[in-house]
């Protein structure tokens, strides 16, 4: 089964970015309109792809009409649909927010051009079924994010962007070296063909390639030993870009790519009822979870605090997927979706707070609660849900992870998960107490700048999803959205087999 | 086999330079060397002893066994990706130089304040 | 007059540039148009075209050569090249799939053969040439602004 | 084959010079030399397309890097590198070569590629696409999607350079 929606998910943002670059200077309003329209189209396309997956279970699209091992194919299964919805939903809401926030910056044309190129890169990574193509679109999204981190051209931004750029390029070289070794061993680049060729035991090449991929994708996902770039890059980027970076970029480039390669191509890790844990992922998960939250406790700059929390929450997702039982994988993917929602909301809140009060330091931000109802309300909701307080979405996914860990017999990792959750709660009560209730010794703030309407709309929409996130666990919704994603990973190396059989006539 | 080893040595030299040097331009130079090594590895994998460049000979002439064309196509892409990242990193480094007046990482950290 | 002569390189370089510029540009276009027959193609040809323009700016100095080639012109060229390639890809939809080669293959070894490949090469040449020259032009503006005439930092 | 090993060791020497030399300009020129050596190695390995592209791309990379280092009062880069970095770098070099020895034994020896999928490009490349240059037919027809992605990477980098080097970041922010 094939559908022209898949290439359009990449061609539309590309076309938008090229038009933005071409006509942006003359018509002032084009960048905003283009940003809003393109992300709306891709978000609608992503939701439609979920229903496509429900009806046809797996779709394949061969580029240029060439069948699987010869040409490049795009493959759409449960996991891809989940990632498409996460990426494009967050991008749409962030584009609404950026309309108001980016007034302070010059040349919106370049901002929306790079924003749409990053979106096209992420859609390309999530949809592709070809290893080298994964590297090319990973590079598009990364180069766009290096430039966007340095968009404010301030001192900190430039230095953080340079550091992020160098580490990101080195990570891409590791990934490319891994792809070269895989090509030398299997003489093909298509993921399904490679999985079939490696099925007979990868010999000595697979362990080395697994190590290279863990290092490369680990750096893109900011897992602990490779996280050094994230606490500098995310705070210095403009707020909508920090939301995109923390919300979706490290997930689609890092977590999704690593998990897809390890489970569906190399087959070093698999999902089975008896629970066959993939220890490197568990170790990386626990390390990131603990180091991230401990470092976050001492932070006073709100965005830096949020950046460290991103590292620890990604640790949750990697730990859950590493445990390897179907329930744990489902919980991990659910937490991935939830985290991208509430973390983007938190970063957007910090952006509107910074715009209103002119500072990011919690101590000098005292007593803002009463004056900015929408911002403080949404920050309250998001903080509750990241700390895992019931009815919010964070609670459900963290609970599911801990239950899955206990049921799979990993009581130690469950203990670490609970401990990290408590520390997260502690650090976010600090945010709420200092930031909003005026607990700090902050002096009287001058008249606060009003928060533009477009930013408020985005914050409210994100908050609504935070509240309603728990509904995704209802059986009817679960089999539509999260179930197929977990089954895609459970499929192991046979999962992409449909690419070879299906495809163009 | 030794060609692969030499290539990996060049790659680790590039990574060593990018990781340990304090000057921004030296870091970019290190990344460029690492990129050269990875591109070289790709073409090495596709080489065939006594092979012929992947261009079809004119109808009359003999057509020898061709070298693997796929790595050539992919290396073309990764060479230009390397150029793209080098250009962006150089632009950022120049802007940093204008702000801090130096390319040295430690001085930048001290001036950050 | 003094400022113009001091700008750019010596007179000898300028006269040589006037002679070689056309040749380099011609060679770049040859590489692009024969991309599907001989080694080279959109990328190599595009970079050579960009190099010929860079050669011009280097020889005649950033400021004086400026009036003729502005970097916004180069970025418009790049954007049209990119849109051209994307249009070729979308046209492929008419012949079945995204990016498929919708034109007839033609006779082997002929200049106008291999369907849409020569057109794609041209689009890439426009894009790569325009893009790289825009990068070089922006770098020149950036350094020209900082380096005041006596060469010291402003 | 001997020429390949000689060129490779020359490139490694050039890389060492580029890394350890004090002045920036000679470091950039040494990288240019390594790139030129790489282009020659590609010619030796029967890859004319790649050699041509590597040569011209490397020229423009050196021009950009020299533009970044020239006309600046640049003290030579200090000799003492970051100690932590030196250890990390050397340790990584040894670890990578040792760990990859078994894997390198397993992939086909130099000169005997598998070419399982590439065989179709060579056999019916001319018939399917009409291009006599097989690499061109792979880039622009069989795997044209890669080239679309790659052209976008360059487009992104150019927009990135424009964004980074524009004269004022924030409205009313300080110039430069």
Describe this structure in words.
In chain A, 72% of the residues lie in helices and 2% in strands. Chain A is mainly α and 505 residues long. Chain A has a domain at 275-473. Chain A has a two-stranded antiparallel ribbon. In chain A, helix 10 packs antiparallel against helix 13. The longest helix of chain A is centred in the middle third of the chain and has 32 residues, at 155-186. Chain A is globular and about 65 Å long. In chain A, 69% of the residues are buried. Chain B has helices at residues 2-20, 24-45, 69-100, 105-112. In chain B, helix 2 packs antiparallel against helix 3. Chain B has 4 helices and no strands. Chain B has one domain (2-54, 65-112): Orthogonal Bundle (Helix Hairpins). In chain B, 72% of the residues lie in helices and 0% in strands. The longest helix of chain B has 32 residues, at 69-100. With 154 residues, chain C is mainly α. Chain C has one domain. In chain C, helix 3 (42-60) packs parallel to helix 5 and helix 4 packs antiparallel against helix 5. The longest helix of chain C has 30 residues, at 117-146. The radius of gyration of chain C is 19 Å and the shape is elongated. Mean pLDDT of chain C is 79; it is low at 148-154. Chain D has 176 residues and is mainly α. Chain D has 2 domains: 1-74, no CATH class; 110-168, no CATH class. Chain D is 73% helix and 0% strand. Chain D contains 7 helices and no strands. Chains in contact: A-B, A-C, A-D, B-C, B-D, C-D. Chains C and D meet through helix 3, helix 4 and helix 5 of C and helix 3, helix 5, helix 6 and helix 7 of D.
- Report the C-alpha radius of gyration of chain C, rounded: 19 Å
What would you report as the Rg of chain D, rounded to the nearest angstrom? 22 Å
Main interface by residue count: B-D, 79 and 89 residues
- Roughly how many Å apart are the termini of chain C? 24 Å
Any idea how many domains of chain D? 2
Features:
heterotetramer; B: 113 residues; mainly alpha; 4 helices; C: 154 residues; 5 helices; 64% helix; 0% strand
Task: Give a brief rundown of this model.
The complex is a heterotetramer of chains A (505), B (113), C (154) and D (176). With 113 residues, chain B is mainly α.
